[in-house]
Amino acid sequence: MSLDFKVGKILAPLTRSLGPGGRLLAVQSYGQDPCVDLINEIWPEEQIVGQSRHQLIASLKEVLGREARAFNFNAGSDARSVFSYQMHTLPEEISSSIGTSTLFAAWNAAIYAAQIEDERLESVISTGEYLDITSRMLQQHNGLWFNDESFVVSRRRS
Hints:
By secondary structure, the chain is α+β, with helices and mostly antiparallel strands. It contains 7 helices and 4 strands. The chain has helices spanning 3-16, 34-42, 53-64, 78-81, 100-113, 118-127, 129-141; strands spanning 23-29, 71-74, 82-87, 144-155.
């Protein structure tokens, strides 16, 4: 998804709709995680992570123009803004023989996080290779997790 689309069609309208003291908490993929490895194993050209929170805020301020003065923008430090979501599994589920339900859960989480369109999935799913790749990635990384980042936009009270 392009920067212009994210800001123009999603962030700017949501920001403008905030009431006095209202807050928008945005969360997006940060990357540098097994999800990226899994998706890039199947689609090497796929760029899962688009723009950083800093780029989004800078573009949002530009799109809002003079209106931006009515808002506070908080990108935060990486220590406060970057966090991980861990797909919980039992230790025996990430063994030499990973159960089908765990593979499907990991696969579904990865394609959802990467926002892969259904049309692109058909050819991959028909071969069944995606389950082998998912299994290999789970074993290689001893599980599956996603690194995300957040930022806050709030409307001033006055």
